[in-house]
Design a protein that fits this description.
The complex is a heterotrimer of chains A (452), B (382) and C (86). Chain A folds into 3 domains: 199 residues, 3-Layer(bba) Sandwich (FAD/NAD(P)-binding domain); 145 residues, FAD/NAD(P)-binding domain; 60 residues, Orthogonal Bundle (Arc Repressor Mutant, subunit A), CATH 1.10.10. Helices cover 33% and strands 21% of the residues of chain A. Chain A is built from 13 helices and 23 strands. In chain A, the strands form 8 sheets. A 5-stranded parallel sheet of chain A has the order 8-15-9-10-11. A 4-stranded mixed sheet of chain A has the order 3-4-5-23. In chain A, 55% of the residues are buried. With 382 residues, chain B is an alpha/beta fold. Chain B folds into 2 domains: 170 residues, FAD/NAD(P)-binding domain, CATH 3.50.50; 146 residues, 2-Layer Sandwich (D-Amino Acid Oxidase, Chain A, domain 2). In chain B, strands 1, 2, 8, 9, 10, 11, 17 and 18 form an 8-stranded mixed sheet that branches. In chain B, helix 1 packs parallel to helix 6, helix 1 packs parallel to helix 9 and helix 2 crosses helix 9. By secondary structure, chain C is mainly beta. Chain C contains 1 helix and 8 strands. In chain C, the strands form 2 sheets. A 5-stranded mixed sheet of chain C has the order 2-1-7-5-6, covered by helices on one side. Chain C starts with a strand and ends with a strand. In chain C, 49% of the residues are buried. The chains are: A alpha/beta (452), B alpha/beta (382), C mainly beta (86). At the A-C interface, strand 8 and helix 3 of A face helix 1 and strand 4 of C.
C-alpha cells in the first residue's frame, strides 16, 4: 500500500495486483465490511492499520486496484502474466514492485498433516478476517512473538487456549535494552498480550515444541516435549494435551518465487525469510525495473514494511518515469523510520533462530511434501544417493511438483539437506510458471495490455 | 581417478549411454567400460520427455528401431532383472490428421508399417472422436492407431539400466564433465577436471552437445539443439487414454496414471538452456484448445522443458565418425524409444565391427558429406 | 446478499455470514476435513492465506477450489474431494 501511495504521489500510473478481496495484506487483514466485530489486536496496531488503509483508499481511485488477481508468471523481459478469475492478461509495466510478503515456515513432525494443525498466522487470519474461532480448544506453539499474539487474540475472542508452548522466552530480548527502547510501542503491545494470556491462566511451556499430533480423522491431541539448546527432544518430558486446534509458527519464508522466475539474483538467509531477492537500500533487484519491498525483500515487520514501501515506491517511480528522485519530507521520514525500527527488529529476529535438530522431529514415515505425499524416508534415500540440490531431490522423489509448487516443503527440504550434508543448498528449486493453476480457456483468451 | 585404460569410454549416461554400456557389457564379459556424465542421475533429456514410444513411423528404419525396442520394454523387467518393472503402459498412440495431405501421409505410412507387421489401423474422424471424446472436430479428418504403442517411466528405465550396468561391472560416474578429447597412439584421452581418462574407443552419447567434443578432434557434425517446452496440468479425471500426436499442431498429449496431462508442444527455436519463454503459454494454449477442446477447464499447473537434438534430416545419427574408434549416437528427439535397439546395434558395431544392420548405412554420420539425407514423414516437429 | 445465510456442505446446511470464507464457516461448526487425498489422508485448511492448497474442495461443481480464499455464498454446494475425484 505504501509503495502504491508513493508512486501515485510521484505521478505514476499504478496497477496493484492483490490476491485478496480487499487491501491489507496479511498483517493488516480487513474483514468484509458486513462482518461487524471487535478487533482483538492491540488498539495501537489497529490504529496503524486503519491509518494506512485510509491513506490507500484515498488514492485508490487514482490507481488500478485488481482484487482477487495474481501474477502467475514473471519473466526477465519485464512481462507480468496475471490471472483474475477466468481472465488472463499480460502486463508490461515500466517498473514492478514485488511486495509479496511472507508465508509461514513449516517444520514437519509426525501427525502434522491432520486437519486441525494450522499455521498460527493462518488461525489468526480466520479470526481476523472471518470472525470465527478456528478451534474450541487450542494449543499454540512455536517461536518468536506471533504465538503469544495469536494466543492472546484467541482468548480475547472467547476461545480456549489449553497451552502455549514457546521455544524460547521472549524475555531474552530484555538483554538488548536499546533495541527494546527503539521498539517500545511494540514492546508495550507485547506486554499487554502477555497479560491477557497470564490472566487467563494458560499453562505456559517454555522450551517445549509439538513433537506429535494425534487423532483419527482430525486433530484430537498434541504431544509437547522439551528440547535442549540444539533442538533435541529431552526424553521423559512428553506432555499430551487434548485440543482440536494446534496453531504453530516457527518463523517466516519470503514469497520470492516471482523474483527468482524473473531472473533476479537471490540470496539466502533463513533468519529473515530464507531465499530473498538481493536488493539495495532502494529495493532494486539485479533486474533493471524490478524492485522488491517489505517482508518479501527481507523479514522486518509491518512498521519497516510500510517505511520500505514508501522508499521503494519512490525509487520505482523514478525508474518508471526516468526523472529525478526528489527527496521529499515523506521520503526522508520513511528512511529515518526504517532505520529506527531496524534496531528493534534485529532483537526480534534472534527470537526466530531455530536450533538445527528441530528438523529431526521427522521420522521416516512423516510426510514432508504434503502435495505429493513424499515421506522423509524417501528424501533421506535421495540424499544418501548423493542428490543434494533441491532440483535433484525433486527429480528423484517428486517433492515440490504438486499444487503448492514447493511453498510448504522446500524450506524444510533445504534445511534437511543442510542437516544431512553439512551444507545448505546453494540454489533454489528452479521456479517455473505457473505460481498458481490457470485453465487453458483463460490462457487461450489472453489479451495483451501495457501498463505503467 | 583410475589410471587403467578402458576399452570403451561412453560420454553421456542417458538412455543411449546406459543402454549401449549394458549391451556392450553383456556382449563381452570382462570388457572395461566407463560411462561418465557431467550431471546427476536422470538430469538430462532422458529424464525430461514425453516418455512415449511408438512404432507408427513412415520410414522402415524408424519402424524397426522402435519395434525392436518395444519388444525389449515388454520384457525389460526380466532382461534387466528389475522386479518392480518400468511402468510399461500400452494404451496405444493415436496419430491425427487435420488435412487430406496429412491423411494421405498417414495412409502411405500405414502401408509400410503393415509390411513390418505393425498392428496399426486407419480411423476416420468419427472413430477418433469416439476413442477420445475430448478431441475437437475442427478440420479433423482421421488418424491411425496402434494399440501396442505406449509409455514407460523414463526414470525407472534409467534406474534399471544403471543397476544392470553396475552389476556387469560397468563403471558409471556422474558429475564428471569431459572438457576435450585427444588422439594419442591409436587410442584416446578424455580430459576432465579430475584427471585424464584413457580409452581405446569412445562413444559420444551427449546428444545435442556432441559437436562440442567432436570439435576438439577436428570433426564437424551438423547437430543442433532443439529446446522444447511442455505443459503439465493438475491431476484430472481420465480424458485421454491413448497418447495423442497431432501432425498439424505439433503437439503430443499424454495423460499419466496420476491424471495429469502432459502436452509437449514443438516449435522451431534455438538455444541450449531449459528456459520458460514468455510467449509459450500464449502460443500453446490456443492450439491445445483447438486440438482438444475437452480440456478447456482443466487448470495448467506448470510449464517445463527440455533440450533435444536436431539433425538436418531430423533422423538419428549412429555410427563411426571419420576418426577411427570415435563413435556417435545422436537420437534426434526419439532417444528413449529407440534406446534398446540402438544399444544392441552400437555394441555390435563397436566391439565386433559389425556393420551389417542396414540402419547403420542409413544413419551413418558420413551421410551429411555425401548428401544422402532421409525423410521421415511422420514427424511431429515444426 | 443477506447478512446471514446457509450453504450446503456434504448435503448438510451450514450457516455463514457475508464475508466469511467457506473454510471459516466450516471451522465455525467444527468441520475440519475438507478432502481426502490420493493416499487416503484427511486434509483441511493449514495456512489460511491460499498458499498451501490443502483446503481445496469442490465448490459449486468446480473441483480444487481453495476454501480459505472463497467467500461463502447463499446456496453454495460444497463437497469434499475424495482422491482425484471431484
Amino acid at each position: 500500500m505504501a509503495a502504491a501511495i508513493e508512486a501515485v504521489r510521484r505521478g505514476c500510473r499504478v496497477t496493484v495486483i492483490d490476491d485478496a478481496q480487499r487491501p491489507g495484506g496479511q498483517i493488516y487483514r480487513q474483514a468484509h465490511p458486513a462482518l461487524e466485530g471487535q478487533e482483538h489486536a492491540e488498539p495501537a496496531e489497529v490504529a496503524r492499520k486503519h491509518a494506512l488503509i485510509e491513506r490507500f483508499e484515498h488514492v485508490v481511485g487514482k490507481l488500478d486496484y485488481r482484487a482477487g488477481a495474481s501474477v502467475y508468471a514473471a519473466f526477465p523481459n519485464g512481462e507480468l502474466h496475471i490471472a483474475e478469475g477466468e481472465r488472463a492478461e499480460v502486463l508490461r509495466p515500466d517498473a514492478t514492485i514485488l511486495a509479496t510478503g511472507v508465508r509461514e515456515l513449516a517444520i514437519p513432525f509426525p501427525g502434522w498433516t491432520l486437519p486441525g494443525v494450522m499455521f498460527a498466522g493462518g488461525a489468526q487470519a480466520i479470526l481476523k478476517s472471518h470472525r470465527v474461532l478456528p478451534g474450541t480448544r487450542a494449543v499454540i506453539a512455536g517461536c518468536g512473538p506471533l504465538p503469544l499474539v495469536v494466543a492472546a487474540q484467541l482468548l480475547r475472542a472467547g476461545g480456549q487456549v489449553a497451552a502455549l508452548a514457546i521455544l524460547r522466552s521472549l524475555g531474552g530480548m530484555l538483554a538488548q535494552p536499546l533495541s527494546l527502547w527503539r521498539g517500545r510501542e511494540i514492546v508495550r503491545e507485547g506486554f499487554r498480550y502477555a497479560a491477557t494470556v497470564r490472566r487467563a491462566g494458560v499453562p505456559r511451556f517454555t522450551g517445549y515444541v509439538p513433537v506429535r499430533a494425534r487423532g483419527k480423522e482430525q486433530l484430537e491431541a498434541v504431544v509437547l516435549a522439551r528440547v535442549d539448546a540444539e533442538g533435541r527432544v529431552v526424553a521423559g518430558t512428553e506432555r499430551e494435551m487434548a485440543c482440536d486446534l494446534l496453531a504453530i509458527n516457527y518463523g517466516f519464508v519470503a514469497n520470492c518465487e516471482l523474483a527468482a522466475m524473473a531472473g533476479a539474483r537471490m540470496r539466502r538467509d533463513p533468519l529473515v525469510g530464507g531465499w530473498l531477492p538481493a536488493v539495495d537500500a532502494f529495493g532494486r533487484t539485479s533486474i533493471p525495473g524490478l524492485f522488491a519491498a517489505g517482508d518479501g525483500a527481507e523479514l522486518r515487520g509491518a512498521l519497516i514494511a510500510e517505511a520500505d514501501g514508501t522508499i521503494v515506491g519512490a525509487a520505482a517511480a523514478t525508474a518508471a518515469s526516468r526523472g529525478d528522485a526528489a527527496l521529499t519530507a515523506e521520503l526522508a521520514d520513511a528512511i529515518a523510520r526504517r532505520a529506527r525500527h531496524l534496531e528493534f527488529q534485529k532483537a526480534v529476529r534472534m527470537t526466530l533462530a531455530l536450533p538445527a535438530e528441530l528438523w529431526r522431529l521427522v521420522t521416516d514415515d512423516t510426510i514432508v511434501c504434503r502435495c505429493e505425499n513424499v515421506r522423509f524416508g524417501e528424501i533421506k534415500s535421495a540424499l544418501a544417493g548423493g542428490h543434494h540440490s533441491l532440483n535433484a531431490v525433486k527429480r528423484n522423489v517428486r517433492s515440490g511438483m504438486g499444487w503448492c509448487g514447493g511453498r510448504t516443503c522446500l524450506p524444510a527440504i533445504a534445511s534437511l539437506i543442510e542437516l544431512s550434508t553439512g551444507s545448505a543448498p546453494t540454489e533454489m528449486m528452479t521456479p517455473r510458471p505457473l505460481t498458481r493453476p490457470v485453465s487453458f480457456a483463460a490462457l487461450a483468451r489472453r489479451g495483451k495490455v501495457g501498463a505503467k | 581417478m583410475s589410471n587403467a585404460k578402458f576399452d570403451v569410454l561412453i560420454i553421456g549416461a542417458g538412455a543411449y549411454g546406459l543402454s549401449c554400456a549394458w549391451w556392450m557389457a553383456k556382449r563381452r564379459s570382462g570388457a572395461r567400460i566407463l560411462v561418465v556424465d557431467e550431471g546427476e542421475f536422470a538430469s538430462g533429456a532422458s529424464g525430461r520427455n514425453g516418455a512415449g514410444f511408438r512404432m507408427q513411423w513412415g520410414l522402415d528404419l524408424n519402424i524397426r528401431l522402435c519395434q525392436e525396442s518395444i519388444r525389449f520394454f515388454e520384457t525389460a523387467a526380466e532382461q534387466l532383472d528389475y522386479p518392480r518393472g518400468i511402468e510399461l503402459k500400452q494404451d496405444g498412440y493415436l496419430v491425427l490428421a487435420h488435412s487430406q495431405k496429412a491423411l494421405s501421409t498417414l495412409r502411405s505410412s500405414l502401408e509400410i508399417q503393415h509390411r513390418y507387421g505393425v498392428p496399426s489401423e486407419l480411423l476416420d474422424a468419427d472413430d477418433c472422436i469416439r476413442m477420445v471424446p475430448a478431441l475437437g472436430r475442427n478440420r479433423l479428418v482421421g488418424g491411425t492407431f496402434c494399440g501396442k504403442d505406449g509409455t514407460i517411466s523414463p526414470f525407472l528405465l534409467l534406474d534399471s539400466l544403471l543397476k544392470a550396468c553396475r552389476r556387469e561391472n560397468v563403471d558409471v560416474r556422474y558429475g564428471t564433465r569431459v572438457e576435450k578429447l585427444a588422439r594419442a597412439n591409436g587410442a584416446f584421452s578424455a580430459t576432465t577436471k579430475g584427471g585424464t581418462i584413457e580409452a581405446d574407443k569412445i562413444l559420444l552419447c551427449t546428444d545435442w552437445a556432441v559437436p562440442e567434443l567432436l570439435a576438439s578432434v577436428g570433426i564437424n557434425l551438423p547437430v543442433k539443439s532443439l529446446p522444447k517446452e511442455a505443459i503439465v496440468t493438475v491431476p484430472s479425471a481420465p480424458k485421454v487414454k491413448p497418447i495423442l500426436i497431432s501432425l498439424e499442431h505439433h503437439i503430443s498429449v499424454n495423460q499419466v496414471s496420476r491424471g495429469s496431462i502432459i502436452f509437449v508442444v514443438s516449435r522451431a527455436r534455438e538455444g541450449t538452456e531449459i528456459v520458460s519463454t514468455p510467449d509459450f503459454l500464449g502460443f500453446a494454449a490456443p492450439k491445445i484448445m483447438d486440438l482438444l477442446p475437452g480440456v478447456a477447464d482443466v487448470p495448467v499447473l506448470r510449464t517445463w522443458g527440455g533440450v533435444s537434438s536436431l539433425t538436418p534430416d531430423m533422423q538419428p545419427i549412429l555410427g563411426e565418425t571419420e576418426v577411427e574408434g570415435l563413435y556417435v549416437a545422436v537420437s534426434s528427439f526419439r532417444g528413449l524409444m529407440t534406446s534398446p535397439a540402438v544399444g544392441r546395434i552400437m555394441s555390435a558395431l563397436i566391439l565386433e565391427n559389425d556393420t551389417n544392420d542396414p540402419v547403420l548405412t542409413q544413419l551413418t554420420p558420413r551421410r551429411f558429406q555425401t548428401g544422402d539425407l532421409i525423410v521421415e514423414p511422420l514427424l511431429n516437429q515444426e | 446478499m443477506p447478512s446471514q445465510f446457509t450453504f450446503s456442505f456434504e448435503g448438510k446446511p451450514v450457516s455463514a455470514r457475508e464475508g466469511q470464507s467457506v473454510a471459516a464457516a466450516l471451522l465455525a461448526i467444527g468441520e475440519r476435513c475438507l478432502r481426502i487425498d490420493e493416499a487416503g489422508n484427511p486434509k483441511g485448511a493449514v495456512c489460511g492465506i491460499g498458499a498451501c492448497w490443502e483446503c481445496r474442495c469442490s465448490i459449486d461443481g468446480i473441483p480444487d477450489t481453495r476454501a480459505c480464499m472463497t467467500p461463502a455464498r447463499p446456496g453454495m454446494i460444497v463437497r469434499r474431494q475424495l482422491g482425484l475425484d471431484a
